[in-house]
Amino acid sequence: MSQVASVIDELEHVLAVGPGERRTEILRRVTDLFIGNADNFDPPQIAVFDDVLARLIREVETKALAELGTRLAPIEKAPAGVIRTLAFHDEIEVAAPVISQSPQLTDADLVRIAQTKGQGHLSAMSERRRLAAAVTDILIQRGETNIVRKLSKNAGARFSEKGYVTLATRAERDEDLAENLGLRLDMPPELLQTLMAKATETVRARLLAIAPPESRSAIQEVLSSVSEEFLRKATAPRDFSRAIALIDKMQGEYKLNEAAIAEFATTGKYEELLVGLARVSGASVELIERVMQNVRYDGVLVACKAAEFRWPTFMAVLKARWAAAEIPANDLNKARADFLKLSVPTARRMLRFWLVRGAAKVEL
Fold first, then answer.
1. How sure is the predictor about 197, in pLDDT bands with cuts at 50, 70 and 90?
2. CB under 8 Å to 106, separation ≥6 — which residues?
3. Spatial CB neighbours of 234, under 8 Å, sequence gap ≥ 6
């Protein structure tokens, strides 16, 4: 360990008086020394490197930290303290290599990062070779669409029952996600059957085309198990006659208002919600049905704003569209910003334009 002692002696001098450039040079030398002998070091020796590197990285530039993270990330016995420091770093170029690769990060570390860091950190995490369900639950809840899609393709990711339910619900509006889930052999059969029943013919055909040979027979079996009756129920148009009668009665008694719409949304009365929103916004039931089924929330936003609803009511309507799934926080924040930005007169003009042109001709 004479080489280690020599480097540490020089380190003490650099920490006391050396400029930033000298610290970066010593950081590289210590890293070289560790990587070159990592397999031979015992835990006490690794702890020495952990302490040395921790002291050095306090005052080096981001570029040097990113380089350090890239070099240490794949190493099985990398100093755990330094790895955690880099993983929690706010700069994604520093954190990403460690988050996506380092075996030193525990599930508890990953949970904390997933709960507190931004989308770049979550994206890097979704690339790990193994992810526990406790981690993926948070990634599904907080991650943007591209992250959830990437996560669903990760064969080493494990999902809880709640996680799979949320993924399946989101996949009803996301064909790419539906394809990814269809290729997962660990997905609960009943959920996969339900998802395939609601998937478009295009999705089903693509699944069989892109599935590897070892998975194709299993996917074909699932698709074959979806009965014609189940498919008919999943895709049948809704019967709004009872809801229309109720809403018209409420409207005649002056009981159809924002509070009533909010209650329909929060209690899962979808048909009543849809017809009620159509009546109070001045739109047709057909148009509101279409905007409620659209993956984008723009049409629902216009209808709710035209009805002069407040944000809590609009949020309740959005959540009703997602059924059992939680709306990711970033999606909810964006929806709130758009809601506050759109004025009532503008929303009413847009709604009138859609009604004049006809729902079938409007790109929502």
1. confident
2. none
3. 194, 197, 198
Report whether pLDDT(226) > 70: no
Residue labelled with tokens 């990634």: 139
Q: Which two tokens stand for residue 357?
A: 């042109």
* Rounded Cα distance, 84 and 275, in Å: 53
Greater model confidence, 102 or 5: 102
Q: How far apart are CA 280 and CA 110, in angstroms?
A: 46
Phi-psi region of 107 (alpha: psi -120 to 50; beta: other; left: phi over 0): alpha
Residues in a beta bridge with 131: 157
How far apart CA 215 and CA 256 sit, in angstroms, is 52
Q: Which residues pair with 157 in a beta bridge?
A: 131
Output the six-digit token pair for 330: 């970033």
For the chain, the 3-state helix, strand and coil shares in percent, each to the nearest 5, are 75, 0, 25
Residues 6+ apart with CB under 8 A from 217: none
Per residue in 122-139, pLDDT tens?
999 999 999 999 999 999
Burial of 234 per CB tally in 10 Å (0-12, 13-18, 19+):
middle
Q: pLDDT tens across 143-158, in order?
A: 999 999 999 999 999 9
Rounded to a whole number, what is the largest CA-CA distance in the chain? 91
Token code pair at residue 346: 């503008």
**CA pair distance 159, 356, nearest whole angstrom:** 46
Please tell me the distance from the alpha carbon of residue 169 to that of residue 322, in angstroms, as a whole number.
7
Dihedral sign computed on CA atoms, order 35, 41, 43, 49 = negative
Which has more pLDDT, 203 or 300? Answer: 300
Token digits of residue 238: 């809704």
Per-residue model confidence as pLDDT tens digits over 336-356:
999 999 999 999 999 888 887
Give the closest residue to 26 by CA, choosing from 11, 37, 13, 45: 11
SS3 of residue 131 by DSSP: strand
Is the pTM higher than 0.85? The answer reads: no
> What's 220-235 look like in SS3?
HHHHHHCCHHHHHHHH
Q: CA 197, CA 230: separation in Å to the nearest integer?
A: 7
